[in-house]
Amino acid sequence: MNEAAYREKAKLFSYGHILAQGGRVKMFKSPLLQAESGIKHGFSSRIGGVSTGCFSELNLSLTRDEPDKKAPDNFRILCASEGLSHESLAVVNYEHGNVVLPVTASDAGRGFEKAPFAPCDGIVTNERDITLVTLHADCSAYFLYDRRKKVVGLCHAGWKGTLARIGQNAVELMHSRYGCEPGDILAAVGPCISQRNFEVDESLGLRFLAEFGCESLCREGKPGKLMLDIEAAAAISFLDAGISPENISLMNVCTYGTPELLYSYRRDNANSGAMAAYICLI
Fold it and tell me: Which of 89, 12, 77 is nearest to 45 (CA)?
């Protein structure tokens, strides 16, 4: 998509977020999705949990070496604050790829009390009684909802998944599996590292320019480096999948630049916890 075409469509996106307080926890919500009565969704901040030190407070990482392993307790706090059943949670088994899997209520608990999914960075469902979960510490969360067919999807997308168009794959799976029409799907991108703080090798930036065709995805950085906008690349992928620009929402929150609310692996390396995104039908 060329620059001019993208700029015209981007005028129709919705931008911004709601920072909602639920009990002890603060959650980022998309205004576009928050207006829908058929779903719950959210992206956690680091506020409201029981982790300490560099992992304080609501660290939801299931793999990082927090000494006291507080993630299970933090997930229960999150569920209580958001009115979710802990038993309904199912988390992607991410590998920074573009695989998206359909799931059912029988998959509730996968990655928690049950065995993990096969490697995947996205999951979709048309069933209640399962809450889709992804984990993040700079990578984007893609929230998808077809209010006509009552189907939800959630993806974890770093630069690899973005470049491999995981968002488009999720939309195509929703269409082939559940009969969703792209024009009926709402898509929101959660907090992620912003272009201002995401420095990449020039060769990688040029791959994004070749794939998505929009010059503003990259800005000049240090010699041999470019500053990459993965949020805009996600939006282009949704547009190319057939989602209407009026149905695209970008939260515009930088994980790297918001240390008081969000973890960032690029900023803090091994001292970073993780946030969780979730979506479910109600």
Answer: 77
